[in-house]
Amino acid sequence: MTLTPVDDLPERAVRVRAPGKVNLSLRVGGRQADGYHPVSTVFQAVSVYEEVVATAAEDYTVTASGPQSELVPTDGSNLALRAARAVAERAGVDEGVHLHLVKGVPVAGGMAGGSADAAAALVACDALWSTGLSRDELLELAADLGSDVPFSLVGHTAVGQGRGHLLTPALSRGEFHWAFAVQDRGLSTAAVYAAFDELHAGAQDLEDRDVPLMQALLAGDATALGAALHNDLEAAALELDPGLAEPLAIATDAGALGVVVSGSGPTVAALARSRQHALAIAAAFTASGVADRVLTATGPVAGARVVAGE
Ligand SMILES: C[C@](O)(CO)[C@H](O)COP(=O)(O)OP(=O)(O)OC[C@H]1O[C@@H](n2ccc(N)nc2=O)[C@H](O)[C@@H]1O
Ligand SMILES: Nc1ncnc2c1ncn2[C@@H]1O[C@H](COP(=O)(O)OP(=O)(O)OP(=O)(O)O)[C@@H](O)[C@H]1O
C-alpha cells in the first residue's frame, strides 16, 4: 500500500493528534487485590496535544521532540512503541514502524501525555498498516496499555469507571477555558496512589456524587462546573509536593471559577470565565513564579485522530 504524501510527510507515513485530559472529578475507592483502585471520574479532553508521526520501517524505534522530551523513554518501555507492537500482534503485521512524538502535554504531569501518545500510536499504526481494527478492538488494546489510554482515544467528555478505562460518553454544552500551571518536576502516578492509601483507610463511596457536575456540563455553566471540580488524589499530590499549594492559591486569587490538581498532578488546572481570563490566570502563574511553564486550552475536544497521510 502506498499512502498519498501529504504536506511534509514522507510516503507511507501517518500523522495523528491526540489530546491531554483533565479529570473534572476523580473519586477513588480502596485499593483492590490487583493493585489498582476503583475510580469514578469525569474526563474532559483539552486542546493540549500530542502529535505522533508513524513512518513505515523495518524495526520499532521512537524519537521525541518538544518540551520535556528528554524525559521520555526511547526504549521498549515507551508507551507509544508498546501500542504499535500491540497493533502488529493483534493484526498479524510483520513489519516495523518509526514513531516520532511531538510532546505538547506535560510529561508525568497528570494530563495523560504518555496515554495520548499510546492512543495516537494505536490509531496511526492501524491506518499505516490498513489493519482495519474495530473501535472495540482498539479500545481493548488501549485498556491493556494503561487506565487513561481509552479516554485519549475517544476524547470529548466521558465518565470513567473500573480503573478509569470503562467509558460512558457524557453530554456537555459549549466550550470551557482553562489555564494550567506546569512543573518541570513530575509526580509518579503509582506514588500518588500509594500516598492516597496512607491518607485514606477503607473504601470511599463512589456512587452518584457528581450529579451537580453533570448538570453543570449539560447546561454549559462554567461557574457551576468550577464549584463542582473535585479530586480525591489532590491531598496525596500535595503531601508529596507541598509547593503545589502555591499555584492553587494564585489561581483562586486570580478569580478562577474552580481550581484542581489535574489527575495525579503536579499540573494545576484552573477553570476560567473566558479565553481572556484564562490568559490572565496564566499571567498570574508566570508573574508569581509558581509554574515552570503555563498553558491555556479549551475543552472538550475530540480524541485521537488522523490529521495527515490517510
Ligand atoms: C490518575 C489518573 O490519570 C486519573 O485519570 C489515572 O488513574 C492514572 O492512569 P494511568 O496513568 O493510565 O495509570 P496506569 O498506567 O494504568 O497505572 C499506573 C499505576 O497507577 C496506579 N493506579 C492507576 C489507576 C487506578 N485506577 N488505580 C491505581 O492504583 C497503579 O499503582 C498503577 O500501577
Ligand atoms: N510516550 C511516553 N511519553 C511520556 N512518558 C512516557 C511515555 N512512555 C512511557 N513513559 C513513562 O511514563 C511516565 C508517565 O508519563 P505520562 O506523561 O504519561 O504521565 P502522566 O501524564 O502523569 O500520566 P497520567 O495522567 O495518565 O497519570 C513517564 O515518567 C515516563 O517514564
UniProtKB/TrEMBL annotation:
Protein EC: 2.7.1.148
InterPro entries per UniProt: GHMP_kinase_C_dom (IPR013750), GHMP_kinase_C_sf (IPR036554), GHMP_kinase_N_dom (IPR006204), IspE (IPR004424), Ribosomal_Su5_D2-typ_SF (IPR020568), Ribsml_uS5_D2-typ_fold_subgr (IPR014721)
The UniProt record lists the keyword Ribosomal protein: no
Annotated ranges, domain GHMP kinase N-terminal: 78-155
Keywords recorded for this protein, A-Z: ATP-binding, Isoprene biosynthesis, Kinase, Nucleotide-binding, Transferase
Pfam family, one: GHMP_kinases_N
Pathway: Isoprenoid biosynthesis; isopentenyl diphosphate biosynthesis via DXP pathway; isopentenyl diphosphate from 1-deoxy-D-xylulose 5-phosphate: step 3/6
Binding sites annotated in the UniProt record for ATP: P106, V107, A108, G109, G110, M111, A112, G113, G114, S115, A116
GO MF entries: 4-(cytidine 5'-diphospho)-2-C-methyl-D-erythritol kinase activity
Family: Belongs to the GHMP kinase family. IspE subfamily.
Full protein name: 4-diphosphocytidyl-2-C-methyl-D-erythritol kinase
